[in-house]
Design a protein that fits this description.
- The chain contains 26 helices and 37 strands.
- It is an alpha+beta fold.
- The longest helix is centred in the C-terminal third of the chain and has 26 residues.
- The two termini are 65 Å apart.
- The structure holds ligand ANZ and zinc ion.
- Ligand ANZ binds next to strand 9 and strand 13.
- The site of ligand ANZ has 18 residues, from strand 9 and strand 13.
Length: 884
């Protein structure tokens, strides 16, 4: 019988409905089996699933299906990261309410997700904009407020003038808003912060324990936290030069060893000393106003030309009262780091060197590299920041950098000087650990976010909204006619009575950064039904941590670090009893595609283009007009370059299984995958091939004996070895997410099965009983092996093979380990202790057979030179020694 073509369009929705009806992917919290929590980063409901989502969720789905078959209670939930600006933009542009827009998008995307055939537990679904979700977030905010983990703070903030909102430092990219692209301004404002810095050291140290995280992600987090050990040094000021009687300047340095190479001091434009000096010096005030215009984002400062202004104030070198250093206001010193002041050592810091070269302040090297002559070692344009011995440094000369740091610290720690304004003595130097990590500012001047549940009362100041009044819900009758925060413009919403004194008060109109919403959703999934609390700790403690989290590397810092912090905050406030939310982290690569451009420079989509492969390579033609289009570089799929493919189109033309298979097969999951129609078609042909193969095998299987044959001939044995070999390799490959390798093994195994079938006499199979039994086994294993990747095809094949139930519910096949053992061994052959060659014999060979084989070797005969054999010693599995 030749099978009809496999019809994905008919089959896929049918299986999806059946899985749904039977709710086979819903996990129960009281399931006694060991749990396995697979989670992919939940999507923002933009309106459409993109191909990157398909890849992300397919990766997770393969693992979820595999672990389910392995007997785990798999938790594989899905939800929506539903707050955020696009909903407000839609409201402004299209006059649709953010809520309606969001929930419509969720409905559309859910339908799309279902069409991919993901084994998700939809019973746990929620959107972060559901009041039943953000109610608990508000509760946790108040818990954190009470625990000192949330605070109100006045700060200079990044203000996005287009989106009219404050941005976290992490959301400022190259000095511009991450979303609007507008140049970010600095504004002094009050805002709410989460005290992530309380955990700086812990967040850093715990990275070492995250051994199932990519090294690059851990490194990025380490750098972001940015721990440095250094010294705070109080430089005395030359009283004759200070603007208002200031007596000292405190600096932070990580290189106290270089103190004798100091050429200048520099302070931030916002430093109090700079402000005081500017009050008396209009030129300086002008300079400060100028440099402030470029913004203070790190990246701007790093790339801007170094500029300074000599204040005329002088600092005294801590080891030499006669050594005076000029103090500059400089554009590369940040007020937010250390003390906002530095000493500059140009020979060993590139920034400082660029600065002195511009202002002719000279440099003195104080660290000499090994092998260089200190007398001739000079620095001109390139600072030396490597290892070496101290020179030109008085009592430090000859020391290593480490020893010199220690010596300077010791001396300055024990030197005491009166503190300004107090008579009390204090050390001149103090060891300090600094972190780059700042507290997490969460206030956003936006409507479509989780309201911050506090009330501002003129009498009582900040008053938390009482627990029994939660959630503070968003009003729905809002207008977006004016720019800025629609909550703030609402006529009535913010006006309330103070819960404490009963007087007139106003609600906080800022909402939370949407990164708060995604910092605990994984914990909520463990018991989304609990109406009274964010989590049910007993359940959360059992189901968490997430065993395998999967998402894009673009979240390596923000989302992952915030989640690690938030889990600790939840621990501190009694909502969970662990610190790390994600035991395993996997960052997937992107889906990329060629770009196509018309002669006029406009972009066209792959769907509009036909690729012709001819003598001079590939050519792209616009189908509508027949004109040539240029084939551009392969890039991340983006709307602007139109190099996207629509998952709906792909699924409609090829089926979800083909899309899934292609996405898994073409590159390792952590690398980019190039979308290629040709390769997708290849995957499609493979689906049909598997379908025919299983149908043919099923015919043979019908004739197979019901009981397992006692012995297997060479053909049957070879097939069984191929089956169990593939089973072994795919099982261990899936666990390590080496999916592309697994798929290669499945292909290879399918080929082995095809070859056996080709030997049979079709259409009436006349294979020996042991072979037909092995074919039946092999086909069953084959279907199970590809079932995590192509679950719909697998269900259909399962029926063809006459198997009971659903393959999605079947146990993973048992590996027969003895079939994995190679059945021959190679032994080294020696004559009188000297190697003369080797011999390959069956693993089960008897010593007498081995002896005969060895003595028959020409090399052995030659070495013996006709002498009689006295003894043959066989060291099992290793050596045969012939003694002559
Ligand atoms: C003197 C020196 C000599 C420095 C030298 C470096 C090399 P990390 O490692 O990132 O902590 N610094 C301190 N506060 C600063 C601020 N607010 N703005 C700009 N730069 C600042 O960097 C610490 C080093 O960065 C400090 O050590 C200081 O310069 C500078 F050969 O002090 B160093
Ligand atoms: Zn009050």
């Amino acid at each position: 019988m030749t099978a009809e073509r496999y019809n994905a369009r008919e089959s896929e929705p049918r299986w999806q409905r059946l899985w749904d009806e039977k709710a086979i992917f819903a996990s129960k919290n009281d399931d006694p089996r060991p749990k396995y929590y697979v989670l992919e980063m939940f999507p923002y409901p933009s309106g459409r699933i993109h191909i990157g989502h398909v890849r992300n969720y397919t990766l997770g789905d393969v693992l979820a299906r595999f672990m389910r078959a392995r007997g785990y209670n798999v938790l594989h939930p899905m939800g929506w990261d539903a707050f955020g600006l696009p909903a407000e933009n839609a409201a402004i542009e299209r006059k649709v309410a953010p809520k309606a827009w969001t929930y419509d998008n969720i409905a559309a995307m859910k339908k799309q997700l279902r069409s991919i055939g993901l084994s998700l537990d939809w019973s746990r679904e929620f959107a972060t904009c559901d009041p039943s979700y953000y109610k608990h977030q508000q509760k946790m905010f108040l818990d954190m407020l009470r625990a000192g983990l949330a605070e109100r703070e006045k700060r200079k903030l990044n203000w996005d003038p287009v989106d009219m909102t404050v941005l976290a430092n992490e959301q400022v990219i190259d000095g511009r808003g991450w979303r609007s692209g507008a140049v970010v301004e600095q504004r002094e404002m009050s805002q709410w912060v989460f005290k992530i810095t309380k955990y700086s050291q812990e967040l850093l140290e715990a990275l070492d324990g995250l051994d199932r995280w990519p090294d690059k992600v851990r490194l990025m987090q380490r750098n972001w936290i940015g721990r440095s050990e250094g010294l705070l040094i109080r430089f005395a000021l030359d009283a004759a030069t200070t603007p208002a009687g200031e007596s000292e300047l405190k600096i932070f340095t990580t290189r106290p060893d270089t103190l004798f190479g100091a050429k200048f001091m520099a302070i931030s434009a916002d430093h109090p000393l700079a402000v005081a000096a500017a009050a008396k010096n209009p030129k300086l005030a002008e300079f400060i106003a100028d440099i402030k215009k470029i913004g203070t984002a790190q990246s701007i400062i790093d790339t801007a030309e170094k500029q300074g202004f000599d204040t005329g104030i002088k600092a005294v070198h801590p080891f030499d009262p006669n050594w005076k250093l000029p103090i500059y206001v400089a554009n590369f010193v940040l007020m937010e780091y250390g003390t906002g002041a530095i000493f500059g050592c140009p020979a060993h810091d590139q920034r400082d060197l660029d600065f002195v070269n511009k202002y002719n302040l000279g440099n003195t090297p104080v660290v000499c590299p090994e092998g260089q002559d200190p007398k001739t070692f000079v620095i001109t344009d390139v600072a030396y920041d490597g290892d070496g011995r101290m020179i030109n440094s008085r009592f430090l000369d000859g020391m290593t950098i480490e020893a010199a740091k220690e010596e300077v610290a010791k001396r300055l720690e024990t030197e005491l000087r009166a503190l300004p304004g107090e008579g009390r003595l204090a050390p001149v130097g103090e060891r300090q650990v600094n972190f780059r990590l700042r507290d997490w500012g969460i206030s956003r001047q936006r409507y479509w976010g989780c309201p911050i549940p506090v009330i501002h009362c003129p009498k009582c100041d900040v008053v938390p909204v009482p627990d029994d009044q939660l959630p503070v819900t968003l009003p729905e009758d809002v207008s977006f006619d004016k720019p800025g925060n629609a909550l703030d413009h609402h006529p009535t919403w913010k006006h309330v009575t103070c819960p404490k004194c009963g007087g007139k008060a106003v609600r906080e109109t800022d909402t939370m950064d949407t990164f708060v919403d995604s910092s605990w959703y994984f914990a909520r999934f463990t018991d989304p039904w609990n109406e009274d609390a964010p989590t049910t700790p007993a359940v959360a403690n059992r189901m968490m941590p997430v065993d395998q989290y999967i998402g894009g590397v673009e979240h390596a810092i923000l989302h992952l670090l915030y989640s690690r912090f938030f889990t600790r905050a939840m621990k501190a406030t009694g909502h969970i009893d662990m610190s790390e939310p994600f035991a395993g982290m996997f960052t997937q690569g992107m889906v990329v595609h060629e770009t196509y451009q018309k002669a006029d420079g406009s972009w066209v989509t792959p769907a509009e283009v036909k690729i012709e492969v001819g003598g001079n390579g590939r050519r792209a033609v616009l189908m509508a007009t027949g004109e040539d289009v240029a084939i551009g570089p392969i890039e991340k799929m983006s709307k602007s370059k139109k190099n996207t493919v629509d998952p709906d189109d792909i699924i409609a033309s090829y089926g979800a299984d083909v899309a899934r298979w292609f996405m898994l097969s073409d590159s390792p999951p952590d690398r980019d995958v190039i979308w290629s129609d040709e390769r997708v078609q290849g995957a499609s042909r493979f689906v049909q091939r598997l379908w025919r193969l299983v149908n043919e095998s099923a015919e043979i299987a019908k004739a197979a004996p019901a009981v397992r044959p006692a012995t297997f001939g060479p053909d049957a044995l070879a097939l069984r070895k191929a089956a169990h070999g593939a089973l072994d390799k795919v099982s261990s490959g899936v666990e390590r997410l080496h999916f592309n390798v697994c798929l290669a093994h499945i292909r290879e195994f399918a080929n082995a099965l095809s070859e056996v079938l080709a030997k049979g006499d079709k259409p009436a199979p006349d294979l020996a009983p042991d072979v037909s039994w092995a074919v039946k086994e092999a086909a069953t294993i084959l279907v199970q092996l590809f079932s995590p990747m192509m679950p719909h095809l697998a269900e259909e094949c399962w029926v063809v093979l006459g198997q009971a139930g659903l393959v999605s519910e079947a146990d993973w096949p048992q590996i027969e380990r003895d079939l994995l053992v190679e059945d021959s061994v190679t032994l080294v052959v020696q004559v009188n202790g000297k190697k003369r060659g080797d011999v390959t014999v069956p693993r089960a060979a008897q010593n007498a057979d081995i002896e005969a084989a060895v003595l028959a070797l020409d090399a052995v005969k030659a070495a013996l030179g006709g002498k009689p054999v006295r003894k043959v010693i066989v060291v099992p599995m290793r050596i045969v020694n012939v003694v002559g």
